[in-house]
Amino acid sequence: MELLYAITLGVLTSCGVYLMLRARTFPVVLGLTLLSYAVNLFLFAMGRLATGMPAILGEAREYADPLPQALVLTAIVIGFAMTAYVLVLALRAQGELESDHVDGKGDH
Amino acid sequence: MTLALIVFLPLLGCLLPLLTVRYGRSLCALATMLPPAIGLFLLWRLSGDVFAGKVLVQTWPWLEQIGLNLSFRLDGLGFMFALLIQGIGLLVILYARYYLSKSDPMGRFFAYLLLFMAAMLGVVLSENLLLMMFFWEMTSLSSFLLIGYWSHSTDARKGARMALAVTGGGGLALLAGVLLLGHIVGSYELSAVLAAGDLIRAHSLYPVVLVLVLLGVFTKSAQFPFHFWLPHAMAAPTPVSAYLHSATMVKAGVFLLARMYPALADTDLWFFLVSITGMITLLLGAFTALFKHDLKGLLAYSTISHLGLITLLFGLDTKLAAVAAVFHIINHATFKASLFMAAGIIDHETGTRDMRRINGLWRFMPHTATLAMVAASAMAGVPLLNGFLSKEMFFTETLQQTQFGNFSWVIPLVATLAGVFSVAYSLRFIHDVFFNGKPFNLPKYPPHEPPRYMKVPVEILVALCLLVGLAPAFTVAGLLAVSASATVGGDLPYYSLAIWHGLNLPLAMSVVALVGGVLVYAGRSRLYNWYEGLPVLDAKLMFESAVQALVRGAGQFTLLLENASLQRYLAWMLVAALLTSGFWLLQLPELRGDVAMTPIDGVTLVGALMLMAAALATVLWHRQRLIALVMLSVVGLFVALAFARFSAPDLALTQLSVEVVTIVLLMLSLFFLPRRTPVESSSLRQVRDLVVAGFAGLLVSGLAVAVLTRPYESIAGFFLANSKTGGGGTNVVNVILVDFRGYDTLGEVTVLAIAGIAIYALIDGLRLLTPVTDANGRPWARDAHPLMLVNLSRVILPLALMISVYIFLRGHNLPGGGFIAGLITAVALILQYFASGVQWTAERWRIDYHYLAGAGVIIAGLTGLGSLLFGYPFLTSTFEYVGIPLVGKVELASALLFDLGVYLTVVGATLLILTNLGKLSVGRNAGEAS
C-alpha cells in the first residue's frame, strides 16, 4: 500500500511540476493545484497510513495520528485562498497586459 | 588630543569654505587656510619632542573587538609628511585663489581640498593600521572628487574614474595585506607591527602580505604597470596636480614603503620586487616625459619617474638608500609642486599647454620664467640646487649594490640613463617654453605676468629649492635626520650633505647625465620622429574597453541566470531544490526501511489508478482548458476519497467542499481567460520540463517510501489522552484545531480573511473583455438562469444551511466543525448566485462579506482574549455540561465560540472572493469592455 501511495504522490508531483513550468497562467494554476494535492497527501502520510481508525474517541480501539490531519485541514483551506489569489493575479495581468503569458508578453 | 586635532581640523574645516564662499573669494581662501595654519602651529608646538627622537602616540578606544582604535602617532616621518601636506597645502590654497576662474564653484573646490588634506594627514599620522586604511580610502575618494572637479569635461570624469578604480583597487589589496599583518602580529597598532619585523618576515604568509601591501603602494604611487592613471589625472585643475600629484597623494605610496620599511624590508623578495619595479618606472617615466608635448603631461611622467627613483631607493634596502629616499621625497615635493604651479600660470596666461605652440615666453613673463627655470634645473639635478644633492646620494647608493651579482652594473646604468632623459626633458621644459622662437597661435595673446600673489607660492618653493641646495646643513639636515631615523627605525649611519665630495664616480655620473641630456635634447627632432613611429598604446582606451568588457561580461553572466523569464527562474529553483534534497536522499544506504508494508486491496488500487489517470489527463489535455479543469476536479475528488480511505473523515469533508469552491472559482476565471493554450515551448524545452518534472516525482516518491517504511514516534498520544478531558471533545482533529493549536488556527483564518480582502482590492477597478462565444465559436445560451436550476437551488438552500449547522455543532465530537460548515454554507450561497444571478441574490441577501470575515476573526480573537479575563493564558478553552429540558445534557465549550469565528471567517472570505469574481461579468453587454 505504501509503495502505491508513494507512486501516486510521485505522479501527482510530476504532473504538477510539469504544468507549473508552462508559459500560460491557467496551466500554472492547474499545476499549482495538483502540486498542493500532492503536498497535502504527503504531509498527511507523515502520520502513516491507517485504515478504519479515525481519530474520534470511542469509535475504534486504535486511532490514526490526528496532528498531521489537523495541519493538513488548515493547509487545504489556505491552499484555496492561495489558488484564488494567484487566479486573480492572472486575471489582473490579463486585464492590464492583455496576455496570459507568465512573463506578461503580449500576444500581438 | 593635539594629534587628533591636526587630523580633524581640516575635516571639520570642510564646512568653512562652503559657508564663507558667499562673502567673496579672498575671504573663502583665507578661511580655508585656517585649518592647515592652525595645524602647522600645533605641529610646531610638538616639534621639540619629535626632534628629541620621541614617538608621540595618542589612543582612544573605538571598536576594540576588531582591533580598531582611534590612535594617532607622530614621529619624524609623520612629522615630515604632515609638514609637507600642510605647508604645501597652504601654498596651494593661495595659488588656487587666483587660478580658479569666477565661474568655478570655489567653495566646493576648497571643501574637497580640505577633505583630502584631512585624509592625507590621517594616513601619515595613524598609529592604527585599520584607521590608516580608512584614511587611505578617503584619499582615493577625495582625489576622485578633485580630479573630476570640472565635471562637465569628459576627460575629467574619465580620468577621475580611472584614478579611483586603480587606487581604490590597490586599496583593497592593501586592506587584505593589513588584515593579514594584524593576523600575524596580533595587533593593528603600528608600534607592535614595526617591532615584529622578524616575526613577519619569518611567517609563511610573508610573501602574500608583501605582494598585497606593494600592490597598494604601487597603485597609489603610480608605479609600473599601474602608472597609467596619473597622466590622465592631469585633467584636474592644476592646483590639484601640484598638490595631489606631486607633493602628497602619490607620495602616500612611498610613505607606506617608508612606514613599513622596518616591518617588511630586508628580504630578497622585497629587494627584487621593489627595486625592479622602481627601476622600470624610473626609466619609463623619464623616457616618456621627453616626448609629451603637453606641459602637464611632461610633468606627470617626470613625477612617475621620480616616484620610481624613490621606490628604487627603498628597494636597494640599505639605510643610506632610505635616507636618500626620504631626502628625495622632500626635494621632489618642493620643485615639482612649484613646476606644476608654473605650468598652471602658463596655461592660465596663454590658454594652452601645448609646448609646440608656447615658445619664447621669456619676453612676456621673465619673472615666472626665472622661477620655472630654477625649479626645472632642480628637477634635472643641476648642482647648487636641492635635486642635485639627493640625486648624488642616489647615484652613490646604486654603486653599492651587489645583489644582482654580475649584473649589478645594471642599476647605475639605468640610473645614469634616467638622469640623461631627466636632464633632456627639463631642458625641453626650459628651452621650448621660454625660448625657441616666438609663440605660435596662442589662444590668449599677448601673455603677461600673472597676479602678484599667484607667484608667491612658487617663489617660496623655489627659494626652498635654492636654500636646501646651497646650505643643506642649516636647512633640511635636522628634519632629514629625524624623519630618516624614524623610517629605518633606529640610528642612522654616517652620511654627508656636503655639496662637494671630491672627484668621484657619482659626480662623473652626474656630469654624464648633464652632457648626455644636452646632447639628447639637441637631437630631439629626430627622436620625435622616431617616437611617432612607435605603436600607440592609449591607456585610456585600453582601460575603458577593459571596463566595458567587464560590464558586458557581468551583464551576460547575469542574463544567463536572469533573463526576466519566470519560467526559467522556476526551473532553476526547482533544480536547486531537487539537487539539495536529492543529495541527502542519496546518502541513505537503503531507500526502503524495515517496517513492513500493508497489503493492497482492490478498491484502493483502482482509486489510485483513477487518480493517476486523471492527473495525467489534466497534463495531456492542458491546452483544452475546460477539459483539463474537469480532469482536475476528478483528481480532487479522488484525493478526498483517499483521505476518507485512510481514516481522515474531517479531511475528506474539507477537501470535498474546497474542491467544489475551487472548481467554481477556476470556471469563473476561465470565462475571462483564453480558452485554449497555444503551443509555445520548443520540443527541447518540453523535454527539459519533463526531465525536471520526472525527477521531482521520483524524489517525492522516494522520500515517501523512505519515510513510510521507517519506524515512527508521534506526539499524538498526548492529544488523544487529553482531547476529551482537557478539550471536552471526542473529535481529536477538531479539538486540536480549536483548542490545542488554536493559536495556529487563529493565524490561518486571519490569513484567509486577508487573502479575501486582497483579492477584493485586486479585482476592484479591473476591466476585462467579456467573450461573446465559447471556445468553439458558439454563442452563449440565451437562458442565463435555467428554471430547473433556479427552483432546485432555492429548495436546497435551507436544507444545505441546516446541514451546515448540524456539521458545525457536532464538529467537536464527530467529523465536522467550523471550516467544513463554513465551506458548505458558502457553496449553498454560491449556488444561489449561480442559479439566480448576482443581482437577484444581492437584493435578498444584504450582507457585506467584508464585515462577515472581519467579524469572524474578531470573534475568534475575542474568545481567546476571554480566557485572559479568568487569568488563563490566551486561547485557553473551557467547557460545561448544561442540562436542557427535552434535549438532555448538552456540552457548551468556549471552543464552540472560537469555531464560530472560524465558520464566519470562512464563509465571509470565500464569498468575498467568489462574488467579486462573479461581479466582473455583471452589468455589461457581451463583447464590450466597459
Automatic annotation (TrEMBL), chain A:
The chain crosses the membrane at residues 6-21, 28-50, 70-91. Signal peptide: none annotated. InterPro entries: CPA3_antiporter_subunitC (IPR050601), NUOK/Mnh_C1-like (IPR039428). Its main location: membrane. It is a multi-pass membrane protein. Keywords: Cell membrane, Membrane, Transmembrane, Transmembrane helix. It is found in: Cell membrane. It comes from the Bacteria. Belongs to the CPA3 antiporters (TC 2.A.63) subunit C family. This is Na+/H+ antiporter subunit C.
UniProtKB/TrEMBL annotation, chain B:
InterPro entries: CPA3_Na-H_Antiporter_A, MnhB, MrpA_C/MbhD, MrpA_C/MbhE, ND/Mrp_TM, Proton_antipo_N. Residues 685-767 form the MrpA C-terminal/MbhE domain. Residues 126-403 form the NADH:quinone oxidoreductase/Mrp antiporter transmembrane domain. The chain crosses the membrane at residues 77-97, 109-125, 131-150, 162-185, 205-230, 269-291, 298-316, 322-346, 367-389, 409-430, 460-486, 498-522, 569-588, 600-621, 626-646, 652-674, 690-709, 749-769, 789-809, 815-835, 847-872, 892-914. It is found in: Cell membrane; Membrane. The keyword Transport applies. Pfam families: MbhD, MbhE, MnhB, Proton_antipo_M, Proton_antipo_N. It is a multi-pass membrane protein. Residues 790-911 form the Na+/H+ antiporter MnhB subunit-related protein domain. This is Monovalent cation/H+ antiporter subunit A. It comes from Halopseudomonas salina. Residues 65-110 form the NADH-Ubiquinone oxidoreductase (complex I) chain 5 N-terminal domain. Residues 611-675 form the MrpA C-terminal/MbhD domain. The keyword Transferase does not apply. Its main location: membrane. Keywords: Antiport, Cell membrane, Ion transport, Membrane, Transmembrane, Transmembrane helix, Transport.
